[in-house]
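Annotators were shown the component list below and the corresponding predicted structure, then asked to write short factual statements about the assembly.
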Amino acid sequence: MKHNYLNNTPPEAAREVFLNAARENVFQYTNESVPAPQALGRTLSRAVYSALSSPHYNASAMDGIAVAAEVTFGAGERTPVALTPAQYTPVDTGDPLPEGADAVVMVEDVIDDEAGNVTLRAAVAPWQNVRQVGEDICMGDMIAPTGTVVTPALIGAFLAGGVAQVEVMKRPLFGIIPTGDEIVPPTAAPKKGEIIEFNSAVFSAMLAGWGAETKVYGIVKDKKELLAAALDTALAECDAVLLLAGSSAGRDDYTAEVVASRGQTLIHGVGIKPGKPAVLGTAAGKPVAGLPGYPVSAIVVMEEFIKPLVDLYYRRTPAPAETVEAVLGKRLVSSLKYKEYVRVSLGAVGGAYACAPLAGGAGVITSLTKADGILEIPQNSEGLSAGTRVQVRLLKSEDEIARSLIVTGSHDPILDELADLAQREGCGFRLKSSHVGSMGAVTAVKSGQAHMGAIHLLDGATGTYNEHILKTYFPEGGAVLKKGVRRVQGFMVPKGNPKHIETLADLTRVRFVNRQRGAGTRVLLDHLLQKNGIAPAQLNGYANEKFTHTAVAATVAAGNADAGLGIYSAAKMYGLDFIPLCDEEYDFLVAAAYAGHPYVQAFFRLLHSEAFKARIKEMGGYKLPED
Amino acid sequence: MKHNYLNNTPPEAAREVFLNAARENVFQYTNESVPAPQALGRTLSRAVYSALSSPHYNASAMDGIAVAAEVTFGAGERTPVALTPAQYTPVDTGDPLPEGADAVVMVEDVIDDEAGNVTLRAAVAPWQNVRQVGEDICMGDMIAPTGTVVTPALIGAFLAGGVAQVEVMKRPLFGIIPTGDEIVPPTAAPKKGEIIEFNSAVFSAMLAGWGAETKVYGIVKDKKELLAAALDTALAECDAVLLLAGSSAGRDDYTAEVVASRGQTLIHGVGIKPGKPAVLGTAAGKPVAGLPGYPVSAIVVMEEFIKPLVDLYYRRTPAPAETVEAVLGKRLVSSLKYKEYVRVSLGAVGGAYACAPLAGGAGVITSLTKADGILEIPQNSEGLSAGTRVQVRLLKSEDEIARSLIVTGSHDPILDELADLAQREGCGFRLKSSHVGSMGAVTAVKSGQAHMGAIHLLDGATGTYNEHILKTYFPEGGAVLKKGVRRVQGFMVPKGNPKHIETLADLTRVRFVNRQRGAGTRVLLDHLLQKNGIAPAQLNGYANEKFTHTAVAATVAAGNADAGLGIYSAAKMYGLDFIPLCDEEYDFLVAAAYAGHPYVQAFFRLLHSEAFKARIKEMGGYKLPED
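Structure shown to annotators:
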């Protein structure tokens, strides 16, 4: 079995080698002429000079009468000056001064009679109330230098200065070639083994944001000749080329080889995680990069190497990334070999930012869409201990992060529905939920990391839900319990219940899929197992843990397990059969300090809204306590 | 003469009235379906749910061999397990697991022989190195709620989740109707009295930035019926309408009347400066605004009333404006009647921001393009004294402001050329020059408000330039003098010199145009007048002050004066005749603390570059000291 080892070049060194090669090959903007009104956001490639003074004639700055200033000299309260119609001209703001006039008297200061004569009780100086030629812009003045990014006001200045067309930096064109035998274009019904190709859309959007254009080529199969031919075509048509996937060292990964055959593979393998198997090189005098197939890896490589390449093209100094200081919530272990990019969630419950690493590997793109920021751990670091003050690079604005209601704890799809309702109703906050299980909710509320927690914890002794948590964990106060929904828990099994699951004991003879430690559903399972005298080890799949009800349902639906425990709405969503076990109470533990907070109040208003009732009715398996 | 007085509604009250009317008329987004890859930057109008799990099959997470985990149980360093080809399948990352397999052994851990048998020295657990169905996204999970602005990564999540089309908020369409008898479309050759209509392009660009589309109608003459007809058309086609100019109370200003005839004029006149003559109302159930003609006034009205209207349409909470604290450099007088918006320049020479109000009235759009920020002075304030700590709303990024080389003082077009060269050469800073005259440069360098000053000050006693400034104003050091250029000063007169200006005495019989107090050229004039025994009062136009050489040239070229004093390059630009008077030395006074600063060093490198020499050769009238 062929296996190539990759290099592990430090990212800074890899970037320098790649950018130097691009610089040597004069990877730089050319000029493009565009109409001024269409230049918004573009970067000037040449200084713009005014072709016209503005105003280009002496214009009245007021509504009033235009006069030769000298005829008003001497006018005063006790020495009014009378002017005949021949001595003045009525003008509006913007009107040209007639021949011989060099001043304007404001309409408020003019007393006119029926014959058209006017009386003035104050004199005007030459050029008073007149916008002289060039007051705003003088012909020949530089309106903006090279490198200026065009704003709306600048468009106005160009047109006012008689400049209809401006020279801007042509956007670089990046060719994008997706590769891979298993890759198919986006579809709602991919076959087994077919992977939807979405990276080209992601990178096109990223490049658009950086000011580049893209041409996406058809998917190329894993054949060296085909890849080489596609690269040749793209090199002929584009300013730079990105080859997607095929940058690792698997047996079908030809990128590095093909780039070398057309130019030079400068770097193969970078000391970053995710993103290690990147290829950086040049071919036909143009920059070429091979990006890893996992989306998060590839996005990191885009940020680290392709954004600086676009900045180089524009010869611009990028603004430093916006960062905030945060306190790391849990220990992070890191490899000495890699600079690591950890996607994190930021919470600002008490004022200081708390930083929580998000789960999910390099293939989990939703770990990026949910992230508030990126925590970078340098190469040669073994990691960071909990409580460390860290700098987090922001992916969302501080304002958006500040306007968050943080609800952590047990997973239920109703949290997403409430998040959506909060947006629809324009509540002004985003509801941010994270799935750490009911016990995680207790910890988070206690340590001030969440405004509220979602819990469904059975008190085995009394058979009641959640009330005991206040006594056990908040004996001195600090939290209040607010009722949420009643929901039904049960077994999710394939349609028709082929394995005839009826009772807990039936689970011992099938493949089970479990929830993670700390989840209320896991607590319920363990309670029921104990009550029925079944040891966890008797369940095949007890260790196969999922973080959400839908993940359990998806696992059963995929045939990876024969049964799971979860809520009705998830089973319904996947067309599974559902064997009800018990009703439970899914409630909210609210940090006392935030019980009166407007976001919390709005949350419970939404929970009892007609819109929410309609949604849970459609989802099925829920009741509000008052129903 | 007809004269309507406007109201003076406080801006907050005016905004509330206007937005409430829009709210009552349900000014709100509708849905539009767009392909996911084209949704970048759009706002979701409905929550997006995954249509597909990702991965949608059990996929190998590694290159290696797929096995049933149980066949590896017991494998260890001393107890290797051998597998026949029938017991494993080679897989690459992303490949589906074959029937019966539930784990993958990494290629690094596989020892293979020529017959195709493999040996393992470690066991794998079920689902190890496998991306199980739904690991990233589970079918039915909410990928993003309503109101989310689509990012590149989110596009990836949509496509990975099998969602090809998403529902976004349709952009509102704003009709823009420019009005006015004197208004003409952008042209390089407007006639006298014709004003170039550029506001529609400025507002279209502003609205594009806020997420709205625009339809710009043809220019409408100042006739009530025509304006009413244009408004009717726009109301039928658009979601909201902006009428440009015609919102003041001049005799041709029908906006308020026409809006009232089609609906309701809610506000006519707002207590803001600039921007007072705004009209706000509704017609045919749609928001309508009349914007003042002066561009800066209109931009203020757009920011204060139209941006909140677009935010309302999207039901979004705008992020608070970014502000910085700065120290006001000079006293600002403000009217009690208006909330004032002062365009300011920000300098960060010593660390703290210094804030300098920019010259220019509401008609001067370049006062906005040059501004770094806006200082708001509340209604009911008489103004602010010099040294006050103020909050400035940023128009440019803090990073851009920080990367500035501040050169203040005497005006010369070469400063703009050097600014352009600095950008072209990618020096990493912007050269920011302001024209406060040579004496202003001395003050600015002394008080730490500029890195360097541009001066040309004649020492009457010795006939030398600039050297005496160090002795007089910096006796204890604090500044160094660096040579700049030699340039020729002289009289600028119309082509053919019709008034036969030859000597200083000739100025007493023509109309003169002067430079502002503190300008080196003004100092030169005063010196020459005194030497020749001519009193300033003998010069007709001595009080007509301009701030730049080009403004003097433009004034002479326009026939507003018969002669001015200035540099050759400005006269040449305007095709004027030039009567040389003397050579002078235009030098740079560098704050000692910044003499070694990389930006300052780069500046003098540019000053002696071949590119700069080529430019001054083309401009004419300059010499470098070494030439």
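Statements collected:
1. Chain A touches chain B through 131 residues (CB under 8 Å).
2. Residues 295-314 of chain A form the longest helix (20 residues).
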